[in-house]
């Protein structure tokens, strides 16, 4: 099985922590040249030092709350660098019921996720077509299969990204480009810790009690680590995954109650 990414350039968003960082590490170990994108330059420098492999690694400082700046930076980078792999990964919007959300909350989430993802795709696809190799992987959420209570804006936005992704998979397949989604379940990241704290406060429980309640819903009996989700991302980015296209792959320990 060909998992070698030597000579391939991977752009990884949200890569200074959590699943994004873990994905960057896995891709580097598979031989890819990795370009990190995040808003904190010092954290980017720190992650660069952690990347293994023999690739030439770099970073771009960009904030997804400023789509025009992101567009400028990724367009300039893509003009002089062939990009073969794009990992779209953005932190989710705050929790809350959909009915209580203000319109501007949906607009902000739509911009941070779908619009910024689209800007990145438009910038990298020309080189993917030229190289006749492309992997676009969107890290979303299992909420695209079953909505998660208390994450109204996130559920709505993630669903839009999933449908956008499926559409792109049909349009780009003839050029050797695949577009897939990885759907993390409960993964021990800063965002999950925040969700557990919120659940604990809402139900008058301790953090450990709220965490135990969450684990009870997972057939695997535990919360995953970021590197386990990153393993799925890395495989989809490899030459071996060239015929996998347009799918949503849950990495959730069997928690999602749908096919």
Compact description:
This protein has 259 residues and is α/β, with parallel strands linked by helices.
Number of helices: 8
| Secondary structure: helix percent | 40-55%
Main sheet makeup? 7 strands, parallel
Work out the count of structural domains.
2
| Cα distance spanning the termini | 27 Å
Secondary structure tally: strands: 7
Shape: globular
Unreliable residue runs:
none
Order of H and E elements: EHEHEHEHEHEHHHE
What is the mean predicted local confidence, pLDDT?
Answer: 97
Spatial order of strands in the largest sheet: 3-2-1-4-5-6-7
Note the beta-strand portion. 5-15%
What is the structural class?
A: alpha/beta
Structural key phrases:
259 residues, alpha/beta, Rossmann fold, 2 domains, seven-stranded parallel beta sheet, 8 helices, 7 strands, 47% helix, 14% strand
Outline the fold blueprint.
Elements: E1 9-13, H1 18-29, E2 33-38, H2 41-50, E3 58-61, H3 67-80, E4 85-88, H4 103-131, E5 134-139, H5 152-172, E6 177-184, H6 190-202, H7 207-216, H8 226-237, E7 248-251
Parallel strand pairs: 1-2, 1-4, 2-3, 4-5, 5-6, 6-7
Helix pairs in contact: 1-8, 3-4, 4-5, 6-7
Description:
By secondary structure, the protein is an alpha/beta fold. The chain folds into two domains: 9-185 and 225-251, NAD(P)-binding Rossmann-like Domain (Rossmann fold), CATH 3.40.50; 188-223, no CATH class. It contains eight helices and seven strands, in the order βαβαβαβαβαβαααβ. The chain has helices at 18-29, 41-50, 67-80, 103-131, 152-172, 190-202, 207-216, 226-237, and strands at residues 9-13, 33-38, 58-61, 85-88, 134-139, 177-184, 248-251. The protein has a seven-stranded parallel sheet with strand order 3-2-1-4-5-6-7, with helices on both faces. Helix 3 (67-80) runs parallel beside helix 4. It is globular. It starts with 8 loop residues before the first strand and ends in an 8-residue tail after the last strand. The model has no long low-confidence stretch (mean pLDDT 97).
């Amino acid at each position: 099985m060909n998992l070698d990414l030597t000579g391939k350039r991977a752009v990884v968003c949200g890569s200074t922590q959590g699943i994004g960082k873990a994905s960057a590490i896995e891709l580097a170990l598979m031989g890819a040249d990795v370009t990190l994108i995040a808003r904190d330059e010092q954290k980017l420098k720190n992650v660069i030092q952690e990347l293994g492999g023999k690739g030439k690694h770099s970073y771009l400082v960009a904030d997804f709350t400023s789509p025009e700046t992101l567009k400028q930076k990724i367009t300039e980078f893509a003009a002089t660098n062939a990009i073969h792999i794009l990992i779209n990964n953005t932190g989710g919007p705050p929790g809350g019921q959909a009915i209580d959300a203000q319109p501007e909350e949906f607009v902000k989430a739509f911009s941070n996720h779908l619009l910024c993802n689209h800007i990145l795709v438009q910038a990298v696809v020309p080189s993917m077509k030229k190289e006749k190799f492309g992997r676009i992987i969107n890290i979303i959420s299992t909420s695209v299969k079953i909505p998660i209570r208390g994450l109204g804006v996130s559920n709505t936005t993630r669903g839009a990204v999933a449908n956008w992704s499926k559409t792109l998979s049909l349009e780009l397949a003839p050029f050797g480009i695949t577009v897939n989604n990885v759907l993390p379940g409960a993964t021990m990241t800063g965002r999950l810790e925040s969700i557990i704290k919120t659940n604990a406060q809402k139900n008058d429980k301790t953090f450990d009690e709220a965490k135990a309640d969450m684990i009870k819903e997972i057939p695997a009996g535990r919360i995953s680590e970021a590197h386990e989700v990153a393993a799925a991302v890395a495989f989809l980015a490899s030459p071996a995954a060239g015929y996998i296209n347009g799918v949503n792959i849950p990495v959730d320990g069997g928690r999602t109650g749908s096919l």
